[in-house]
Design brief:
Length: 164
């Protein structure tokens, strides 16, 4: 492992443990050259499908890009970074297990919309406003109406269950 400070190639592991629910290995390292410490994370690399964008361009699935957009949508909301990491881990596993070679960007966007709708409604609206590129306030209000209807449907279902 190359030291991020001095670029020395001789570094030792001084501590190691499982992280992220056992899906990742955390390692504390020390450089033999400059004696500085740094942390690395090891994670299994899944064979993920290639993302096909609207314009037909293909690019590898980028976990960091997905996580960054979720962080932006959930900014100043009561959603922890650990929760977002866990949801992205789950989405990665589902994509890897699907066995598909390619996936449309729209499919990933739909999955993110469902995830955010269940996680935080404000984050959902934030993401939807960018993802769906609303042309005017009417399109935005239509999406808000769908959210309110789905929320009232789930509340009505919960009320019916409570009565029985």
């Amino acid at each position: 492992m190359q030291c991020p400070y001095c670029r020395e190639m001789d570094c030792r592991v001084v501590d190691s443990r499982l992280a992220a629910g056992g899906t990742c290995t955390w390692r504390r390292r020390v450089c033999d050259g400059c004696k500085r410490r740094f942390t690395t994370y090891e994670r299994v690399e899944h064979a993920l499908p290639t993302v096909v964008k609207k314009n037909g361009q293909r690019e590898p699935f980028a976990r960091e890009k997905l996580l960054r957009s979720l962080h932006i949508a959930c900014n100043k909301r009561p959603v922890s970074a650990d929760t977002l990491e866990a949801r992205v881990d789950q989405m990665e596993r589902e994509l890897a297990q699907s066995g598909e070679k390619e996936i449309d960007a729209a499919d990933i966007g739909s999955r993110v919309m469902r995830l955010l709708r269940d996680l935080d409604e404000v984050a959902y609206v934030r993401f939807a406003s960018v993802y769906k590129s609303f042309r005017d306030i009417d399109e935005f209000m239509h999406e808000m109406g769908k959210l309110v209807r789905s929320r009232s449907d789930s509340t009505a279902g919960a009320d019916a269950e409570a009565k029985s």
